[in-house]
Structures are given as structure tokens and as C-alpha cells.
Amino acid sequence: MTQSVTTCDFCGRQEQDEAKTLTWSISVENGRRRTYCDTCSRANLRAMEGKLDSEYW
Question: Which domain of life is it from (predicted)?
Fold first, then answer.
């Protein structure tokens, strides 16, 4: 059985426990799915709500 690892596309944090990733954010930028950990999501909430691509954070 293979366990899936989720990686934050902003800081590189990795998490194997799916329950812990329920607080993470997901966005689509330029057709690519991006995943952000809860820490990066909180730190960049205004930019995310403003629909800015992560390169501008």
C-alpha cells in the first residue's frame, strides 16, 4: 500500500496524514493545480482572496 504525500507548492512542507491536509488550500493557476499548507494559506490570505498568482505573494 502506497501512502500519498502532499507538498506545499509555496514552502515545500510535506504531509502524509490526509486528515492534517484538510486545512490546506488548493488553487488553479495557469491551468495548474497548486496546494498550499495552512501556514502559507494564513500568511497569504489577502493575496489569495484577491486572486493574485503566488508569484506575486
Answer: Bacteria
Query: Are the CB atoms for 15 and 6 separated by under 8 Å?
Result: yes
pTM, rounded to two decimals: 0.76
pLDDT digits 0-9 by tens, 1-17 = 567 899 999 999 999 99
10, 47 in Cβ contact below 8 A? no
β-pairing, 6-7 vs 14-15, is antiparallel
Q: Which amino acid is at 42?
A: R
User: Which backbone phi and psi does 11 adopt, to 5 degrees?
Assistant: -105, -15
